[in-house]
Amino acid sequence: MTDNSPSGALERLFRLQELLLEAHTKAERRNRTPEHLVHVEAAWQDFRRKRHEVASRREQAEVRKNELDEQVAGYAEQLKKSEAKRKAVKGQHEYTALLTEVDHAQREIRTREDELLVVEETLSQARADEEALAATSGEEEAGYEEQMAEWRAEQAKLSAEIEVAEQKAAEIRVKIEKRLLATFDRIAKMRSGVAVARVAMVGPQTAACSSCNVRLRPQLLSDLRLSREILQCESCKRILFWDGSGLP
Ligand SMILES: [Zn+2]
Q1: Closest CA to 9 of 153, 173, 188, 164
Q2: What is the average per-residue pLDDT within 101-125?
């Protein structure tokens, strides 16, 4: 691949495209769970989601329980202070005020204690659920990994092949002229990775772009024959690649 003529450059470009398409196709395959494993994957994700959900339910209950415990302790402290003031009270007015204070603190404590009963119930249920899920977790994961083992091996193989293709593509890229490479990348981006189209003979003197099937003007075909420059399909703008076959 040291040929610097347009046809040599085109061959490199075409090879680059094949490698990039191969890497892309294999990456898509590697990233898509096969049909027969979709339910295995879904069940595993469901199990993980459940564990996560239970853990966050337990955490929320713990946080709320701590808040309520602190608030109850605060009001109990207040009650103690009110009780201590009782002896020093002078007159009916102060006494009524003190009773109101005590009454208020007691009511606040009761409300929180009611909520605490509910929160503690939630907490112990969440802890039980969490333990039950933790007990089967190892088994669930082992089963999942076992069913996935073959696919994991396939994924690893695809990854290795992708790496090889990308490596080869990188080696070719450095051998291609920058402007041509920029044109290639721009068209590839717009045309799902297919920037170079083979020229196909569709009649004795008639050729077409194999990507968009539009026929080439005789002049364009004749220019291609002489292959002095890089030519693009006038319809889809892909770079035309003719390997010399099919022409009379
Ligand atoms: Zn075309």
Answers
A1: 173
A2: 96
The pLDDT tens digits for 218-242 are 888 888 888 778 899 999 999 999 8
Which two three-digit tokens encode residue 210? 């194999």
CA angle 231, 235, 238 (to 5 degrees): 45
Write down the pLDDT at residue 1: 41
Range list for CATH 1.10.287.1490 in the chain: 33-154
Residues in the chain: 248
More confident residue, 201 or 113: 113
Q: Retrieve residue 20's tokens.
A: 């990039």
CA 23 – CA 193 distance, rounded (Å): 11
State in Å: Cα 161 to ligand 1 middle: 30
State which fold the 33-154 domain adopts: Helix Hairpins (1.10.287)
Query: How remote is the CA of residue 245 from the centroid of ligand 1, in Å?
Result: 18
208 CA → ligand 1 middle, Å: 8
| C-alpha 173 to ligand 1 mean position (Å) | 23
Compute, in angstroms, the gap from residue 96 CA to the centroid of ligand 1.
95
